[in-house]
Amino acid sequence: MMNVSKLMQTCSMGSTCLPEDTDPCAKAPQVTRIKVQLETYRLWQQFDQLGTEMIVTKAGRRMFPTFQVHITDMDPAAEYVLLMDFIPVDDKRYRYAFHSSSWLMAGRGDVAIPGRVHFHPDSPACGSQWMKQTVSFDRLKLTNNLLDDNGHIILNSMHRYQPRLHVVLVDQSTDSQRSAHRNFCTFSFPETRFIAVTAYQNHRITQLKIASNPFAKGFRTTDANNWSAEGTKSHLSHSFSPLHPQESTQHPGTKKQRTTEKQHVNREACPFLQSSIGSGQYH
Questions:
Q1: Which residues have CB under 8 Å from 249's CB, separation 6+?
Q2: Contact assessment for residue 236 and residue 199, using Cβ atoms and an 8 Å cutoff
Q3: pLDDT > 80? residue 136
Q4: Does 242 fall in a domain?
Q5: Dihedral class, residue 222 (left if φ above 0, else alpha if ψ from -120 to 50, else beta)
Q6: Does 41 map to a domain?
Q7: How far apart, in whole angstroms, are the C-alpha atoms of residue 167 and residue 277?
Q8: Where is this region: Disordered (predicted)?
Q9: What DSSP state is assigned to residue 179?
């Protein structure tokens, strides 16, 4: 299992993250120098200071802020697959104390759900393509539906999670399995940790989401700073359902089929992911 604690220490000083293992002998040269910068870092920092919450629904809900990164020092000619997973920060369940506006531990966490990974739909692509522009995981959705068959990331509500980005070199050699541990690197930003919720608990998170999310324009009818905690809380369960209007519309079947087929190709290109990246246990 990867040492996420070490990763978080590495990333804690800024928005640029180096791979976990920087020993040039431990990783393939195509991945050992890669650097990843978290975009909208200041926004993530604002949410983190309040205690970031992410909505999970049965149908799946997109993240806001969106996980976006800028990648440098890839091999321009090599092919890479980009994917994300989410691991529990600890084995605790949390509850929100409204009287103190803080999150408190509420006992042992639920049984860990088998981890899923989300492949970036452009994978695989050459390094020059990835480095050309910001890489956005805006199609990723979070769900609490244990029976989800749409490929969404399944999370337990009221548990804290750490998103991780994995950059995997596509190795076409016949003995790629033997060198699988050398062909990927992992990046983790502590500012992106969050608690999964079915309704926002902290009214300040609600206000910041509305103020920052371009899809929330219709909710900016009053000064968010003047909202009361009680008034905001009364709308928590439904206020944000329209924030991503495109979520309520199913993509045409052909498009959905193309995405599914692309993800299948990605998995075939990286058959070692399940054994190499880790089990997604808490650290």
A1: none
A2: yes
A3: yes
A4: no
A5: beta
A6: yes
A7: 10
A8: 226-283
A9: G
Q: Which residues of 147-184 are buried (b: 16+ CB within 10 A; e: fewer)?
A: ebeebbbbbbebbbbbbbbbbbbbbeeeebeeebebbb
Q: What does the pLDDT read at residue 221?
A: 52
Number of domains present in the structure of the chain: 1
Region 153-158: what's the mean pLDDT?
Answer: 96
Query: Which residues constitute the domain of residue 86?
Result: 26-218
Query: What tokens appear for 142 in the block?
Result: 């979070």
CB-CB contact of 79 with 169 (8 Å)? yes
Q: Does the pLDDT at position 4 exceed 70?
A: no
CATH classification at residue 94: 2.60.40.820
Confidence of residue 220 (pLDDT cuts 50, 70, 90): low
- E-strand ranges in 29-157 read 35-38, 53-55, 61-62, 68-72, 79-88, 92-97, 102-108, 118-119, 125-126, 135-136, 141-143, 153-154
Each residue of 55-111: pLDDT tens digit?
A: 999 999 999 999 999 999 999 999 999 999 999 999 999 999 999 989 999 999 888
- The pLDDT value recorded for residue 114 is 75
Residue 234 lies in a domain: no
In a domain, 266, yes or no: no
Residues forming beta bridges with residue 105, ordered by sequence position: 94
